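user:
I keep going back and forth on a fold encoding question. Separate attempts, laid side by side, tell us more than any discussion would. Would you put together a sequence-and-structure record for a protein of your own picking? Write it directly below this note and I will take it from there.

assistant:
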Amino acid sequence: MKDKFQESLIILSVLKHTMEKDYAVLQRYHDDYDLRFSITNKMLIDISSFLNEWKRFKKYSRDIPEIRDTMKVVRPAIARLKKWNGIEGMRNTMLAHGYRDDNNSGRITCINERYFNAKVPKTSLEIMLLTQYCIHISAIFIFKHGDREPIEDQVQQNNHTEIEGGITTSEELKTEFISFCENALKIDPSLKGLLTEYLESTQKSQG
């Protein structure tokens, strides 16, 4: 069971690393509405992943006596996270599954049910708080019970290396998108108003 516990701890460590990056970006650009909207949605997906892994983690650690005291330390943060019991449903129907509800025969997601009337955090600051809880719960368990160096090595490996798997320059991005728009306009000139707006936006953002 201890091997499963350490495996789960590695998962939490990877999630912690990802969430730290998202949190830093949101903190830096919190006044940017578009970025705030995108990053908080991403954070909710990661919080849902954390809560799913926590179910396994708690089960694996149940029979390890030295873990129990640490569980007491994080209990208030876990209680706050669990209060928002609509996060998983929102994640599974709105955020990660393209607004299709597989629990309702794949019909379009009911936004009232999954968001407005659901127990999900609706402010960016609450989402930031929950993210910090996930980060620090993971950090506490890694510090107290993890084989810290191997875990951190796995998370930090290639941290600052971008592996090639597509275009690599902003000029290529601009060129490819302009090519797509120009081809679309040749096929259907009625798209001119729409695509011209996108083209102008791309040219401004890419310099």
